[in-house]
Write a structure and sequence with these properties.
Order of helices and strands: EHHHHHHHHHHHHEEEEEEHEHHHHEEHH
Largest sheet: 4 strands, mixed
Number of strands: 10
Organism: Hypericibacter terrae
GO molecular function: DNA binding; DNA-binding transcription factor activity
Strand content: 5-15%
Distance between the termini: 54 Å
InterPro entries: ArsR-like_HTH (IPR011991), HTH_ArsR_DNA-bd_dom (IPR001845), HTH_MetalResp_TranReg (IPR051081), WH-like_DNA-bd_sf (IPR036388), WH_DNA-bd_sf (IPR036390)
Number of domains: 2
Oligomer: single chain
Protein name: HTH arsR-type domain-containing protein
Keywords: DNA-binding, Transcription, Transcription regulation
Radius of gyration: 21 Å
Number of helices: 19
Length: about 400
């Protein structure tokens, strides 16, 4: 892949706790997580009081753990969880906060202004371009909701970075010892096997469409030398990136990814979720479907999106169709296949808005892509909807299928 300037970025695809520590912490704490419900129930019971005290000090927002993935900065992939926490603990507190804000805002200059108190976070969010706002929304952040507790948590962190840093390390260390260390020992082998398979495919395959095949929220545009966010269309010049890090993940439901600008050229951290991984694996993952070559779909053939609707969580389907705009999109695609630009025209929506809604329909496994005369057409998967009724009945009536709603804070 040739970027627009400079030498091509190197890439790695390896199993590592570098991001899994933080993604697993988010999964355990977040009421939005859907996967591994029994593991999350048991893990919450195992967390000690030091974790809950640290979470409360940080404002009780699970999204803080996603941002904390940027806190260690540039560290080797073979770093242990203890080494990751040591890196966070010994960095200047202001650098930790700036790294987290940079991952969120996608702009290191803006992040530094917020970190030093020169700009409030709400004003920084309001100044972001629309593509970045749409990208954050697609990753389960809520930049348009200025009352979201995450913003208050980050403001508290900015008011006393040293206290925020201590709470971050204390919470992650308690989670590491009580939950993550034994979890990682059980996951490392399967994640390493998947990483080797995917790495072989990247080595041999076409970069075009790679993001879609891995379920990432980004696509690679070799001719333009750019990394493009699927939702919102924001582009990052590949000349600014020195390293692409593909890491298998059991927990990255939000499709969180970020660029760490540390160094002469930055690092793009790209964790890809696979349903066959994790403490409660599901069918349909890459380890079961032999994706080593990661083949691109042939022209004129349908490229089915075998995601949750093929047998995973039905909640994603209801979330996708529960929105009036997405239901209208599904209705049009059920009548005939059409390109995204035609959807935008018929519904009088902007292309970024259509892209945003298609993200949810794809995640639910309701969309398939078809090639016709060089055009990419979208269609609704009738088979996925026909199977929905029986799967919903099984999900609702099987024992302990859905975890009870929980507060983000530990009950007192």
């Amino acid at each position: 892949m040739a970027p627009s300037s400079g030498s091509p970025p190197r890439w790695e695809c390896r199993a590592s706790p570098r991001l899994e520590l933080f993604l697993a912490a988010w999964s355990l704490a977040s009421d939005r997580a859907q996967r591994h419900p029994e593991w999350r129930r048991q893990g919450r019971r195992a967390l000690p009081g030091t974790y809950w005290a640290a979470e409360a000090a940080l404002g009780g927002t699970p999204e803080i753990w996603l941002l904390a993935a940027a806190a260690p900065g540039a560290v080797p992939l073979d770093s242990t969880p203890i080494e990751l926490l040591g890196r966070i603990e010994h960095r200047p507190a202001g650098a930790v906060l700036t790294a987290m804000l940079t991952a969120l805002l996608g702009d290191p200059v803006l992040a530094r202004r917020v970190a030093v108190g020169g700009l409030t976070l709400p004003r920084a969010l309001a100044s972001l371009p629309r593509p970045r706002l749409l990208a954050l929304s697609s990753m389960d952040f809520e930049p348009s909701d200025l009352d979201h507790p995450l913003w208050a948590s980050l403001a508290r962190f900015a008011a006393d970075p040293e206290a925020g840093q201590r709470a971050l390390v204390a919470g992650l260390d308690a989670f590491r010892e009580a939950v993550f260390e034994p979890l990682w020992r059980s996951l490392a082998g399967a994640e390493a096997k998947l990483a080797a398979s995917v790495a072989a495919g990247i080595e041999r395959g076409d970069w075009t469409g790679l993001g879609h095949r891995l379920g990432l929220g980004v696509e690679f545009e070799p001719k333009a030398g750019a990394l493009r966010q699927v939702t919102g269309g924001a582009r990052t010049d590949m000349g600014q990136i020195g390293s692409l890090q593909f890491l298998p993940s059991s927990f990255n439901e939000p499709r969180w990814w970020f660029v760490d600008p540390e160094g002469e050229r930055g690092t793009a951290w790209l964790p890809f979720l696979d349903p066959s991984l994790g403490p409660e694996p599901q069918r349909g993952g890459a380890l079961e479907s032999e994706p080593a070559a990661i083949p691109a779909a042939r022209p004129g053939s349908a490229a089915r999106n075998l995601t949750p609707a093929a047998g995973g969580d039905v909640a994603l389907v209801f979330r996708a169709l529960g929105d009036a705009t997405r239901f209208a999109i599904a209705h049009l695609l059920a009548r005939r296949a059409m390109p995204a630009v035609e959807l935008a025209r018929q519904l009088h929506l902007s292309k970024p808005t259509v892209t945003h809604h298609l993200h949810f329909l794809r995640d639910a496994g309701l969309i398939e892509e078809q090639g016709e005369g060089g055009r990419k057409l979208l269609a609704l998967r009738r088979d996925a909807l026909e199977a929905l009724s029986s799967r919903t009945v099984r999900r609702l009536f099987e024992a302990d299928a859905v975890p009870p709603a929980r507060s983000r804070r530990r009950p007192t």
